[in-house]
Description:
The chain has helices at residues 30-46, 62-67, 94-100; strands at residues 19-25, 51-57, 75-80, 85-88. With 110 residues, it is α+β, with helices and mostly antiparallel strands.
Amino acid sequence: MNSKTGKPGKNGAEKKPFYRFQLFVAGNEPNSIKARAVLARLCGARLKGRCEMRIVDVFEDYQAAIDHGVVVVPTLIVEEPPPAKTIVGSLSDEEKVLALLGLLGKGARP
Length: 110
């Protein structure tokens, strides 16, 4: 089933969802470095070709953080697939992050 149209894909096969992330970080602070590395690894290992990642350094673009209601960094905003989610922290608990993204366990997306 296509997540955007709600209709089945070709031959009834379900299309794999596309992920769109915004990761808000604070320069090269340790938790920000960790969050960047974890997200890059998860995208490379689980979402090859199915994700878009935007890194926003709040030291360089604080207005983007204000616009998105980010008050703590690192913060990961998952814009796609719906529903939107916000994950705060260094993303060091990778199993929990995978579960929140629907990529682990029951109801996991392929």
